[in-house]
C-alpha cells in the first residue's frame, strides 16, 4: 500500500473546478451573451402629469424605417432589426461587443389608453411613445357647493 500525501490546495482547486462546471449552466458569462447576439432594447415606462403614459426605448444607431410600432388589442409591440454597419467588413473588426439582430418587445396596455391618439418620436437614438388616457379615464374635478 502506497502512502499518498494530502495536498489541500490541490483538492480545493479540484472542488472549485467541479462547482464551476455545475454552476456554468445557471450563470452565463457576459462574453457568452455577446457572442449569442441577443439584443433587446431597454425601456422606461412612466406616467407623466399630463394624463398619459410615456414609454422611452433606447434604439442606438437605428433609422426610423427600421423600427416598427403597433398598438392592437391593448398591446403595444415594438420590433425591428439593428444591423451591423455595412461600411466595415467583418475581416476589419478586431472586437464586436455591441449586439445586433432582430428584436420584438410587447407591453400590455391598460384599457384606459386611447389607442387612436398614440404618438411616437425618434430622436438621438431614443424612441419616445406617448400613450394618452381616454377622456372618460381622466380624473373629473367636481366643485363642491357650500350650503
Describe this structure in words.
This protein has 147 residues and is an alpha+beta fold. 16% of the residues lie in helices and 32% in strands. It contains 2 helices and 7 strands. It has helices at 8-23, 30-36, and strands at residues 43-48, 52-58, 67-72, 75-82, 101-108, 119-123, 126-132. The strands form 2 sheets. It has a 4-stranded antiparallel β-sheet with strand order 1-2-7-6, with no helix packed on it. Strands 3-4-5 form a 3-stranded antiparallel β-sheet, with no helix packed on it. The longest helix has 16 residues, at 8-23. The radius of gyration is 26 Å and the shape is elongated. The termini are far apart. Residues 28-37 have low confidence and may be disordered.
Write the layout of secondary structure elements.
Elements: H1 8-23, H2 30-36, E1 43-48, E2 52-58, E3 67-72, E4 75-82, E5 101-108, E6 119-123, E7 126-132
Antiparallel strand pairs: 1-2, 2-7, 3-4, 4-5, 6-7
Mean of residue pLDDT values = 83
Strand content: 25-35%
Low-confidence stretches: 28-37
Largest sheet: 4 strands, antiparallel
Note the total helix count: 2
Number of strands: 7
By helix and strand content, what is the structural category?
A: alpha+beta
Principal-axis shape? elongated
Order of helices and strands: HHEEEEEEE
Order of strands, widest sheet: 1-2-7-6
Terminal CA distance reads 106 Å
Helix fraction by DSSP (H/I, runs of at least 4): 10-25%
Rg on CA atoms, Å: 26 Å
